[in-house]
Amino acid sequence: MRILGIDPGSRITGYGLIEKNGNRLVHVDNGAIYTNSKDELPQRLKIIHAGLVEVIERYQPDVVAIEQVFMAKNAQSALKLGQARGAAIVACVGAELAVSEYTALQVKSAVVGYGKAAKTQVQQMVKALMKLPEIAQEDASDALAVAICHANSFHLTNRLEKAISAQKKQEKRMQK
After folding, report:
1. Residue among 134, 139, 142, 171 flagged as catalytic
2. What are the Cα distances from residue 136, in Å, to 85, 120, 123, 127?
């Protein structure tokens, strides 16, 4: 399964692609889509969308994992981040890809084992897990962490959803 991880941002949107082969995770690529903070927000959103469409076309991921918006101290920053997330999600849904969302706490827990780990700890662990020669650019490293989180939790979430669905079906049968 090829996973595209996305760390959305209105100035820099990071992306990271990994392959999950059994229990092995293999680094495919990572990078960042840069926008000019002097440009109007709609133009920046267009660049984010187009950049992710290009990444999706080039690497053909099977699924996408994206980081959820955190509560920023500055409401204006949170709104811009949310809009950048929206542009990223539309690029993925437009390619008919399933999109899973993870909080920063979930990502850090899945990658480092501690939900309040420092950013540098996450970057070091991503470097080690992906066998990278150096730490990836900050936003790309965060995107790889989101992809790793999905790889590590996808099967558990999938099994849980199937169990809940089976339980609901059983309850409906019993009601008849």
Report:
1. 139
2. 21, 11, 8, 7
Closest CA to 108 of 63, 155, 149, 66: 149
Q: Angle, nearest 10°, between helix axes 119-129 and 138-175?
A: 80
The whole-angstrom separation of Cα 142 and Cα 170 is: 41
Residue 101 annotated in active site: no
**Assigned token pair, 86:** 């929206």
**Spatial separation of the C-alpha atoms in residues 26 and 96, rounded to whole Å:** 24
pLDDT in tens, 135-151: 999 999 999 999 999 99
Query: Tell me: the pLDDT tens digits for 87-134?
Result: 999 999 999 999 999 999 999 999 998 888 888 999 999 999 999 999
Q: Answer yes or no: 62 catalytic.
A: no
Question: For position 147, what pLDDT does the model report?
Answer: 97
Does the active-site annotation cover 139? yes
The catalytic residue among 19, 54, 67, 171 is 67
Residue 129, classified by CB atoms within 10 Å of its CB into exposed (0-12), middle (13-18) or buried (19+), is middle
Cα 166–Cα 167–Cα 168 angle in degrees, nearest 5: 90
**Annotated active-site residue in 7, 19, 39, 62:** 7
